[in-house]
Amino acid sequence: MGYETSERQKSAKRKSAVREWVESIIVAFLLAMVIRAFIVQAFKIPTGSMRQTLIEGDLILVNKFIYGVRVPFTDLRFPALAEPRRGEVIVFIFPGDRKKDFIKRLVGLPGDVIEIKSGTIFVNDKPMVTPEFSQRYYYNKGDYAELNKKITVPKDCYFVLGDNSASSMDSRYWGFVSRKDLLGKAMVIYWPPNRIRLIK
């Protein structure tokens, strides 16, 4: 009798331990899904369009709540903590294929007039001289960046460019990014170890 009771107790403890383990996994999974959906998400850089800021294979973390995170499966957004600023590296839904996420540098805000002349970006007729723009050459490629052509960014939209202008499919070709399609701001490269740094 005592032996059977002891075995039942051991069995009950084993079941309890398994249940706690399963519950812990479920909680951890749900927490990870919430963090991924609303706070921070990891992305892998697939192409060289953002060289040398980001190179192929870099793993980055994107702040998803700063611009007002999208509620999954809806067009609703939480209030933004900050508005997108010129020069930030942003992640967004690609207008040409809504199953893809793109990463580019934000150049034009709503209402801005954009022009590329002699490799320099002009915003509202002023050349961009900050380091994130002045250290790169921008090519007049695509329907939205023809030579001697000025483009006005529509309301609630943004104009974005890749840092590697010679090899970037960006707003010069397909136009503007809608405010509702912003996914977040690229914050840090976390892998590989020799590439760990803040994204500027």
What's the helix and strand layout?
Elements: H1 2-38, E1 40-44, E2 59-63, E3 89-93, E4 101-108, E5 113-117, E6 120-123, E7 126-127, H2 131-134, E8 151-152, E9 157-161, H3 171-174, E10 177-178, E11 182-191, E12 197-198
Antiparallel strand pairs: 1-2, 2-11, 3-4, 3-11, 4-9, 5-6, 5-8, 6-7, 9-10, 11-12
Can you give keywords for this protein?
200 residues; alpha+beta; Umud Fragment, subunit A; 2 domains; eight-stranded antiparallel β-sheet; four-stranded antiparallel β-sheet; 12 strands; 22% helix; elongated
Report on this structure.
By secondary structure, the chain is an alpha+beta fold. It has 2 domains: 1-38; 41-198, Umud Fragment, subunit A (Ribbon). Helices cover 22% and strands 28% of the residues. The protein is built from 3 helices and 12 strands; from the N terminus they run αβββββββαββαβββ. The protein has helices at residues 2-38, 131-134, 171-174; strands spanning 40-44, 59-63, 89-93, 101-108, 113-117, 120-123, 126-127, 151-152, 157-161, 177-178, 182-191, 197-198. Strands 1, 2, 3, 4, 9, 10, 11 and 12 form an 8-stranded antiparallel sheet that branches. Strand 3 and strand 4 form a beta hairpin. The chain is elongated.
